[in-house]
Design brief:
homodimer; 2 domains; Immunoglobulin-like; Sulfite Oxidase, Chain A, domain 2; about 400 residues; about 30% strand; five-stranded antiparallel β-sheet
């Protein structure tokens, strides 16, 4: 299967050469109270694109998907999207206020929040701009930039419905406004129905307290919905009878349609997928032969039911294996064994979720939505694998 | 339910006071290419105990379980146990040799390993010395030290059976020897049956490449078995027809019984559990009233079926809720809503796994195994919650 080296006669009874690092003691157990990756992995970092935004305080960086396996994104590599930079918040001074159309307006300390019944869930979180540079045909160089505005972590916190019950939601309330404590005071309107369904007020991410750039000490999780409504540094939830039409739901995070009208409150992240091996950052180095095609799929509707993979630009499809357990609204790892004949190939993945929704082609998406959008581009992506093993980002129309 | 503050008349229409961190921009997206916890969490680190071992290169530190939620342990906080410190290994120079009773002795580069079909699994890993200081009655101060030799991560790699098939195991082979590339050349014998069952040769931990202290670039995972056989920095697998009786399976990692004989090759980590809230590091700060008792349970046999919790030292038990999905050979988070009356209480958890195995009392364990053991102490643990909310480690006989 692989060109591993067979040992020569005589050599087989020897252990491999003893390397330098086996010849002396390494650092002991007090060396790194909080660990870090190997220096040999220093290239595996979040990366930003300078031309994308005016300032780096209101910008984005990208998860290095090509370097990741499984479904958990390590917290240090989760993409960041900020609207006013990362506040450094003292948790002892942080407060969450719930007010507006409630019976009892309340102010919670972090200790208060931590006392409530808790739940843990693995959820993906995706910026709706993921892939957005490609609506009009831009060809980003690598999966970190085409799809790296997504991550997946284990989140722990309190059900928002639990905190709302404490305050007593009035029957007139239909929406809520969630506000962050960052310099942008990032705010989004969320329908009460979703808030009562599966939203969480989280304080932990992958076991430990949430990282600063992901909302420390408190973040709203709105499972399966676009990243920006998952308000970080959550300080305020106000109940009302209609949406607020704040800046980030009028001038931004709307989808301009061909007729000049804009779709608003397009919260749900529909099924998406991408191949992470091979990809531009992870070329095929060993020539033709066996290669396991690997990738990730996800859907804001729930579980991924099936992922198909094509190696000929969508003419023929084979069903990939999904890594169990497949979790609702979480990344799902798919894998397909493939024998490459060494000829150029067009690699594609297509996700189908538990509602039967099928990830569309870019053609289908442009037909429905035009080319003026920035957000919610979840079309089937194509990598061209060249004969020399390098991989390019291409669009097939 | 909690003493959250109700807002006064007039106050309810205002947002909470605007804190200093909302008044200026924070750092942007290039500030931390690889993120780190908030400075306010600097006390949440691995900790070692100076008197426990002669040198820190052959020692252990402990996972801060009291500060963690859910089931994923962040890689930076996974306990470390080394026998010769942490080697800094160049992955391009690292090799894995498979030899001995095989048809084709083979030498694998990291690129070779990465080509094989991969799998991802969430597994706990526990040092058999976890809790070992308490066999004779020592009272460690806090859950980090009583139970912190355990962690749980998502591991990705190749099935060991796949690599062994490549080499062709001879019918005479019954055991294998796994060897690490650290200065201790840590070696353990493992029955071939287990190797072919569910062992993995892993290169990724929680999505990214394995951390140096956890075996970078390659580690053997032996699910549910004692930590030391999960050889880190894996460089060699030798097939043979009997165990090797190396140092770490004769002078160490055996269990001295009352009759002077030692149990050897006691690989499996039986069901265990501990309450992580409250605990000595996490006292009850709010006085009597509602408290969610939280903890973790695990079993090398497979899935946790049930966890019972007692608040009166084992006279009465209530069944806790298990966080879904419950995964085989992984940490399982349990939770129980409890109303504390403010009187001193004796808190215990008792895990039952899918084989029906019930976590024993310390009395049962000592009756069967005496008090000379260091390893495999998985008895029911007791915290005493005092009237002032502080928590002590106590033993009830």
């Amino acid at each position: 299967m692989s060109p591993v080296r067979a040992l020569a006669k005589g050599e087989e009874n020897l252990p491999p050469n003893v390397p330098e690092w086996t010849r002396s003691l390494g650092p002991g157990v007090t060396a790194s109270p909080y660990g870090a990756p190997s220096p040999f992995e220093k290239a595996v970092v979040r990366r930003s694109v300078e031309w994308l935004t005016a300032t780096e305080q209101s910008s984005i960086n990208f998860t290095p998907l090509h370097a990741l396996e499984g479904i958990i994104t390590p917290s240090g590599l989760c993409f960041e999207r900020h609207h006013g930079g990362v506040p450094e918040i003292d948790p002892d001074q942080h407060r969450l206020m719930i007010h507006g159309m409630v019976e009892r307006p309340l102010l919670f300390t972090m200790d208060d929040i931590l006392r409530f019944p808790s739940v843990s869930r693995v959820y993906f979180l995706e910026c709706p701009a993921n892939g957005g540079m490609e609506w009009k045909g831009a060809q980003m160089d690598g999966v970190q930039f085409t799809h790296g505005m997504v991550h997946c972590c284990e989140w722990t916190g309190v059900k928002l419905s639990t905190l709302l019950a404490e305050a007593g939601v009035l029957p007139t309330a239909k929406w809520l406004l969630a506000e962050g404590a960052d310099a942008a005071a990032m705010t989004r309107s969320i329908p009460l129905e979703k808030a009562l369904d599966d939203c969480l007020v989280c304080y932990a991410q992958n076991g430990e307290r949430i990282r600063p750039e992901n909302g420390y000490p408190l973040r709203l999780m709105v499972p399966g919905w676009e990243g920006n409504v998952n308000i970080k540094w959550l300080r305020r939830v106000k109940l009302g009878d209609r949406p607020w039409h704040h800046r980030e739901e009028t001038s931004k995070y709307t989808d301009l349609m061909p007729d000049g009208k804009a779709r608003q409150f397009t919260f749900l992240m529909e099924a998406n997928s991408v191949i992470t091996s091979p990809c531009p950052e992870k070329p095929v180095k060993h020539g033709k032969g066996f290669h396991e095609i690997r990738g990730i799929a996800w859907s804001g509707h729930g579980k991924i039911r099936r992922v198909d993979v094509s190696t000929d630009g969508g003419d023929n499809w084979r069903t990939a294996e999904l890594q169990e357990p497949v979790l609702s609204k979480a990344l799902t790892r798919f894998r397909l064994p493939w024998t490459w004949d060494g000829a150029p190939a067009l690699l594609q993945a297509r996700a189908i979720d538990e509602t039967g929704y099928v990830q569309p082609t870019i053609e289908q998406l442009r037909k429905a939505r035009g080319v003026n959008s920035i957000y919610h581009k979840n079309s089937i992506h194509t990598w061209r694998l060249n004969a020399d093993g390098t991989v390019n980002n291409v669009q097939i129309i």
